[in-house]
Amino acid sequence: MASLPLFPLGTVLLPGARLPLQVFEPRYVALLRDLIEAQEERSPVFGVIAIREGNEVGEGAVRSLHDVGCAALLTHVAVLGGQRFFVIVEGTDRFRLGDIDSGAATPYLTAEVTWLEERDGDPALLAPLAGRLRAELEAFRDLTDEAVEGASEVEVPEGPRELSYAVPLVVSLDLGDRQRLLECPDTETRLRLGLDLTHRERELAQALGATLKAPQSPFDLG
């Protein structure tokens, strides 16, 4: 078990993904300052975890959280003025949420977490599944290229594990689907789920004449 400060959000961070955030609530400004002050001793990492019930903003607005989240490495900080900051984080390792530390002397949530191992599944199936998913993503991108802003500029990763997490870079998925990807026990399962989700969205795009919104690039407030 490890202790990790938490930043509950109305979105899901996946390993390898970059997430821009505006930080203005006093408790999360305090979290940001604590991370920066301690970065000489340890990496500036906190936990992003999706809200199951409640809202991002407001004291006591979060009523329940999902069980699995992703560590976020702070890579960029800019002062917007006053107590407002613009930050960019990158998803690293997944974790399973344990007990909230009610005794932590911080205004933000701190919890005990268990780091989740990255398993791949059946090695013989990874390359074929990755090839099928890559082809499905390309077919989706070809179909929606004119409707989805920036889709043609997205570079699809080569490695099966990285590819399994990259589906939302091309396909617009809601929080529930992104959380399912995050919670998959191994790369093989995630590739299969990504293939199903991409195929579903491609069929929907065909039915709607490819009039899809762009993939979500969250600019969350916290």
Q: What would your notes on this structure say?
A:
The chain is of the alpha+beta class and 222 residues long. It has two domains: 2-116, Roll (Archaeosine Trna-guanine Transglycosylase, Chain: A, domain 4); 123-207, Up-down Bundle (Methane Monooxygenase Hydroxylase, Chain G, domain 1). It has six helices and eight strands; from the N terminus they run ββαβββββαααααβ. Mean pLDDT is 88; it is low at 212-222.
Short description:
The protein has about 220 residues and is an alpha+beta fold. The chain is built from 6 helices and 8 strands. The protein has a 5-stranded mixed barrel.
List the helices and strands and how they pair.
Elements: E1 2-9, E2 18-23, H1 26-37, E3 45-54, E4 62-65, E5 68-81, E6 84-100, E7 110-115, H2 123-144, H3 160-165, H4 167-170, H5 175-183, H6 187-207, E8 220-221
Parallel strand pairs: 1-3, 2-8
Antiparallel strand pairs: 1-7, 2-6, 3-4, 3-5, 5-6, 6-7
Properties at a glance:
222 residues; alpha+beta; Archaeosine Trna-guanine Transglycosylase, Chain: A, domain 4; Methane Monooxygenase Hydroxylase, Chain G, domain 1; five-stranded mixed barrel; 6 helices; 8 strands; globular; disordered C terminus
CATH class of the largest domain: Mainly Beta
Structural class: alpha+beta
Mean pLDDT: 88
Number of separate helices: 6
* Uncertain segments: 212-222
- Strands side by side in the biggest sheet: 1-3-5-6-7
* SS elements, strand count: 8
Report on the biggest sheet.
Answer: 5 strands, mixed, barrel
In CATH terms, the superfamily of the largest domain is: LON domain-like
